[in-house]
Structures are given as structure tokens and as C-alpha cells.
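Supplementary Methods. Inverse-folding protocol.

Structures were first reduced to a C-alpha cell string of length 262. This string, shown here, constituted the complete conditioning input.
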């Protein structure tokens, strides 16, 4: 009877590192039972540890191979799952990608397979969060003409929204910030740059409201008009608090002009 060897892969917790891990697994002809960050403690019992060195060339080869075997939407699903940041996502994706590579036929709709089903369900959750950010993002106009929007997404979906906002507001400078992960993107009318703020626990980065001294002179008026409009179209007799909170989760409220007091 042959005993199963416990193999651990460690990597830098990047998507490129994950793709490199799959490349290494095939090159070594051995697949890991666990995929850990380089800084994570190793389990008490294991037989071998392989350190994955992220290689962009290897990662690109793996990604191209996956794209050849997956429809575009399902290749995108892999990115969505990665951005979920859930602890189980890296190993789940590694198993999914191995199944895709090994199968001689398309398997992305084989929902009887728990791995395929789990990746699909997780990707849909991330996609839903992206859509909610597109729905609920509210911009405040700053004194310098920049439009500032801030949210705390459940998943790391801000990168998935940038293309939409760049196309939708192509002629306006804007900043979109993730208060939970403390980074965002700035658009100057030409190109988008990733940014971070030094004092991420103060002001708008904590409360969602920009200090009045930093706002455009007409912004308070616009916010008041939006609140009045929101109140005027609300039919109090038809209020359904349970459905309202389902459609517009409470965790977004502090960033919504119509829900902010004062």
C-alpha cells in the first residue's frame, strides 16, 4: 500500500504566482495538497515544500492555455474568483484550472462537479458585488473639479469597475477609492493610476463624507436636491424595509448621498 505524500506549495499570493504554481505542478508532476502564502506557518506534518517563484512568462503560458479551453466569460470568472479574497479561493482555483487543462472536452458547465460549481457560484457573487458598486457609487465634486467616490466592497471589485467609469465619465477627472483595502484609482482625463492615501483613517476615508471645506461650492446644493428628489419619489405607504435592505444593503448606506444625514 502506497502512502500519500503531503506536498505543500508556497507562493507570493498573486494571481501570477497562482498560475506559476500550476505550471510548476505539471513540470514536477506533483500537485500540492495545500497552497500557502510564503509568510504562513507550515502545518505540523508534511513531506515536501516547494516554493513557487512567480514567473510572468510561465504565468502567461498557463493563462493562454486556459483561455484556449474556456469561453471568454469563464476565463474572466477565474479573475472574479481570485478577487473574492476568500481563504479557499486559491486552492479551489488551482483544482479548477487543473481540471480544465486535463479534460479533453469543455467542462465549465459540469455543475455536478463540486469544484466547477463552487468556482461558478463564487464568481457570480463577485460579479454581483461589482454590479452593486456600479449601482451605488456616489460622487462628490471637490473644489478642484475632481469627482470623488468611495465604497467598502465586500470583495476586491474596484478594479472590475474602472473600465465602466472611464468610459462613462471620460471627460471628467475622478477618484474611486476602496476604504476597506485602502487603495483606489485616479483618472485625469487621459489615463488611470492606482493610488493610496497616507491618512486612510480620517475624514471621508472613514465616514464617506468629504469635509465641506474641500467640496465644490455647489456640491452641497446638488446633494440637497438629490435628497429632496429621493424623498419625493418615495411612497411611504409602500415601504418594505426588508426588501429595501435586500436591494440596498445597509453596509453601503454611509456612502450614499440619499442616506447620509446633514
Amino acid at each position: 500500500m502506497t502512502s500519500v505524500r503531503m506536498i505543500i506549495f508556497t507562493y507570493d499570493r498573486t494571481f501570477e504566482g497562482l498560475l506559476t504554481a500550476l505550471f510548476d505542478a505539471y513540470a514536477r508532476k506533483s500537485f500540492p495538497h495545500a497552497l500557502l502564502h510564503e509568510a504562513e506557518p507550515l502545518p505540523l506534518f508534511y513531506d515536501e515544500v516547494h516554493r513557487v517563484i512567480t514567473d510572468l512568462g510561465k504565468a502567461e503560458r498557463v493563462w493562454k492555455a486556459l483561455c484556449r479551453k474556456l469561453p471568454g466569460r469563464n476565463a474572466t470568472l477565474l479573475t472574479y474568483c481570485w478577487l473574492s479574497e476568500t481563504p479557499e479561493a486559491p486552492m479551489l482555483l488551482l483544482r479548477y484550472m487543473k481540471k480544465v487543462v486535463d479534460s479533453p472536452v469543455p467542462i465549465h458547465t459540469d455543475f455536478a462537479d463540486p469544484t466547477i460549481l463552487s468556482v461558478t457560484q463564487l464568481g457570480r457573487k463577485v460579479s454581483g458585488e461589482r454590479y452593486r458598486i456600479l449601482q451605488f457609487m456616489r460622487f462628490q465634486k471637490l473644489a478642484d473639479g475632481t469627482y470623488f467616490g468611495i465604497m467598502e466592497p465586500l470583495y476586491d471589485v474596484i478594479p472590475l469597475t474602472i473600465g465602466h467609469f472611464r468610459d462613462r465619465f471620460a471627460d471628467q477627472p475622478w477618484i474611486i477609492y476602496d476604504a476597506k483595502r485602502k487603495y483606489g484609482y485616479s483618472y485625469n482625463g487621459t489615463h488611470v493610476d492606482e493610488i493610496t492615501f497616507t491618512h486612510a483613517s480620517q475624514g471621508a476615508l472613514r465616514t464617506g463624507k468629504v469635509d465641506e471645506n474641500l467640496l465644490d461650492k455647489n456640491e452641497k446644493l446638488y446633494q440637497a436636491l438629490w435628497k429632496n428628489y429621493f424623498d419625493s419619489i418615495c411612497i411611504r405607504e409602500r415601504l418594505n424595509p426588508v426588501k429595501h435592505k435586500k436591494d440596498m444593503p445597509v453596509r453601503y448606506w454611509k456612502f450614499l448621498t440619499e442616506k447620509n444625514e446633514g
